[in-house]
Amino acid sequence: EHESDDDSYEVLDLTEYARRHHWWNRVFGRNSGPIVEKYSVATQIVMGGVTGWCAGFLFQKVGKLAATAVGGGFLLLQIASHSGYVQVDWKRVEKDVNKAKKQFKKRANKAAPEINTLIEESTEFIKQNIVVSSGFVGGFLLGLAS
């Protein structure tokens, strides 16, 4: 077959590329491992603590915002209903909520293998990075409290 100039591709030999680029070897080489293990225990705890605090702080703020939005929306709906602006069919709402619960339970039972796999992978990650994980949990709790 005849190839045109547009269809030509360069083949990249990864072994040659790794020899020329030392950073590639550090990241993907045999001794690469988790990068965090290369730091001291104190550094790992600080890294985990700072990221945990940030996650906890954001979780707290987003949670408050979501609770305020849901509560405020429900309050406005009640005020509008009481004032006569809106007629709410509460029987229908209850029926729809029960229907949604049943569908959620069916889907939750089907998703169990994926959830178990995720839990196993998370547990393995925590075991391998126990120092960073413990720092993260402590920081997360502090972030929630602040």
Number of helices: 6
Shape: elongated
| Biggest beta-sheet profile | none
Mean pLDDT: 80
Structure class: mainly alpha
Rg, nearest Å: 27 Å
Q: Determine the fraction of residues in helical runs and give it as a percent range.
A: over 70%
Cα end-to-end separation: 68 Å
The number of E-state strands comes to: 0
Task: Put the structure in a nutshell.
The chain is mostly helical and 146 residues long. It has helices at 14-20, 22-28, 41-83, 90-110, 112-128, 130-145.
How would you describe this structure to a colleague?
It is a multi-pass membrane protein. It is found in: Mitochondrion outer membrane. Its main location: mitochondrion. Belongs to the FUN14 family. This is FUND1 protein. By secondary structure, the chain is mainly alpha-helical. The protein has a domain at 87-145. Helices cover 76% and strands 0% of the residues. It has six helices and no strands. It has helices at residues 14-20, 22-28, 41-83, 90-110, 112-128, 130-145. Helix 3 runs parallel beside helix 6. The longest helix has 43 residues, at 41-83. The protein is elongated. The model has no long low-confidence stretch (mean pLDDT 80).
How is this fold's topology laid out?
Layout: H1 14-20, H2 22-28, H3 41-83, H4 90-110, H5 112-128, H6 130-145
Helix pairs in contact: 1-2, 3-6
Name its key features.
single chain, 146 residues, mainly alpha, 6 helices
